[in-house]
Structures are given as structure tokens and as C-alpha cells.
């Protein structure tokens, strides 16, 4: 368990907090490209790490993000007009370009230099893999563009979604690196979900309910290995990479696509759960893409016109007690993503980790917390650059593999854990 001070350290991400400053050293998913579909489209609100921002795509197609509130009298620029290479406040007509620079104050006399003195806070954006990424840290420490495999394969091989999660980012992340719950919470879904069913690994998951956890250090994060009994003398390993601070990959099943998550704080009591699927060697089939769009696998159905899950806290996640009693749905809740979020949100907005009773299956969570606290403290106290920003550590895959007993999982699966173009993923 953590003490109160440690729990505060790892969960608070506003500007000026150690963990908030750590997050600001990474490229973070900010928006789906579909949210800014065309030049001069409507501006979009962006709230990340406790900051309220507004994003636009201007007349030339350039991306920009700036403080949400006009420098004149604080009107939200979400009401603004995106026109002629800038966002104009509808209150008094002040206009700002994609860098937040004021370029027009209609009420000023000719020759006024007021515009030169007014600039909204803004951050760099880049677009890659159907995602608009933001860097919110010091310009001199801006890392190279992200090179996660899902974002670099051809467009037809990848799919990305996001959903609102009403809890602190860390309890969502910790669910993503906890493989032991799969045999219970997601029981039934493995055999029915079109993006999971048919894999031999599903049988191993359900036959052995006492998984053994081992954790190996990796550059930029951890490799969390979970073994279950397979055939005589062999173990079924599911290996989950965690790259600091918020990236996880779910071990694949059969020839189904590889998938994973980013858990990005909106504020201390909510986060965006980003979910990607991709196949490293082929295009996603029409049926796979349709299943993802319909909320199967690690994705979810939405409240129309939003990125809020249709099954959410306000409607008790559409819990069906009869299906729970009958065993049709072990949790009584439909869908892998909502099964996870329902329980993570049930912990409260910020989980009180001083009351936990951890076991051996929590080794990955314990070590991830230690690395997060150490990195945030080192950055705050000594300016030590955080790990995981380098593109080479992003070239990683999750793995599902059967190995002889006694082999160190991270050494035996070393080649399979490395992402390379057109290289098949290793799965069972």
C-alpha cells in the first residue's frame, strides 16, 4: 500500500506538481484527427492535466492549441469563429492564430501595437496515426515525435478510439497492467467477443485461475509477465509492456489485432482512456473494423455525439443482474472496456491506496508505482530527464507465448517483444 503523501504524489497531475511536470515531458494523445476534420472546422475543447485549452485547424490546415479563454475579458473561445487563419472571439472580435498570437483587435486605432504584446499560452501539436498529439513541457526538452507501432503502420492496419473515464488516471492504468482479473471479470467475453474468440490462450486463461507474476525492468518502463499452466512442462505467458508514464499493451490472442491503451489525465478525477488496435502485417478486415466501431474488444459504444460510454456511472453501467446470476455475464455488465471502467470508477474519483491489501498478483502495480514516484521526484529535485521519451523504447510489442518451464520470460521472448516493420506478432 501507499501512504497518504505517496498517493498524492502519484495521482496529482496539475501544473507544478511532480507528476504533472513528469507528464508534460511526453507527447500525449490530445484529440482524434476526426475531431478536427477539415480546415476552418469548429474549434474543439481540450482539457488535459488540469488545463483548459482550445484546438483548431486553420484555413491552411495547420493545427493549433491555445488557452481556452480570450486574453481580453476571459470569454471561452469555444464560441469563436474559425476563419481566415485564426480564431476570432465573438465578443469583441479579438483574433488569435494557431500559435495563440493575437493578430487583430478591431477596436484599436490604426498603428496600434497592442497585438504584438498579447499572446495566449499555446503548445506544439503533431498529427500521426489518426491522433493529434500535444507536448506541454519546456520547449528545450521537447522529445522526438512518437513512434509507437500502431501510429506508424499504414492507416488500413490501425484503429484508435477514446472514451471518458470518471476516475483518476492511475487506477485506470493499474487495471491495464493487472492480468489476473481477466479470468474473472472478463469471463465469457473471451469466448464471445469477435476480437478475442477462438484463441488457444483463452483456454489457458480459464483453466488456471492462479497466475504467477514476474516483473522485469525494461528501458522506459517494465515488462510484466504472467504465467499460467499449459501443457506438461510448459507455461503460457502473457507479457504486458508498460512504458512510462501511461502506455500499456494487452497481449494478443491468436491472429486477432494487437491492442493497448494510453491513460491521459484530464484532471485529478477523470481521464481519457485511449484504446488502439492494429495488425503489424495486414489490413484490418471489414468485420474487425466494424466490431471495433460497434464497441467490441477494448472499445465501447458511445452516448451519441460524444466520447462518453453509453453504459456509464449515471445508469449503473446498464448492469443486468439476471445475466450475472445466470453466468451469461460474470460481471452483469456488457463489454470489456466498460467492465473495467465500472470497477475502476467504483473505487472513487481518487482511490485511497492506504487501505489496500496487496498480493503477489500486484507486483507489476507495485513496481510501476515505485518507478513513477522515483522518476517524478528525480525530475522535481534534480532535473533528471524522465525515461520513456525516446523512440527506440516505443518500438515494443506485447506477447502471448508458450515457453518451457524455468526459462526467464523476458529473455526467452526478447525478439518477440521488439516491434519491427512487417514482422508477425507472437500470439497463442
Main beta sheet strand tally, sense and closure: 8 strands, antiparallel
Structural class by helix and strand composition:
alpha+beta
Mean pLDDT value: 96
Beta-strand content bin:
15-25%
Would you count the extended β strands for me? 19
Radius of gyration: 23 Å
Relative helix content: 10-25%
Q: How many helices does DSSP assign? A: 14
**Uncertain segments:** none
Q: What overall geometry do the principal axes of the alpha carbons give?
A: globular
Question: N-to-C terminal Cα separation, in Å?
Answer: 34 Å
Summarize the structure.
With 428 residues, this protein is an alpha+beta fold. 23% of the residues lie in helices and 25% in strands.
Structure description:
Helices cover 23% and strands 25% of the residues. It has 428 residues and is α+β, with helices and mostly antiparallel strands. Strand 6 and strand 7 form a beta hairpin. The longest helix has 20 residues, at 363-382. The chain is globular, with a radius of gyration of 23 Å.
What distinguishing features does this structure have?
single chain; 428 residues; alpha+beta; eight-stranded antiparallel β-sheet; four-stranded antiparallel β-sheet; 14 helices; 19 strands
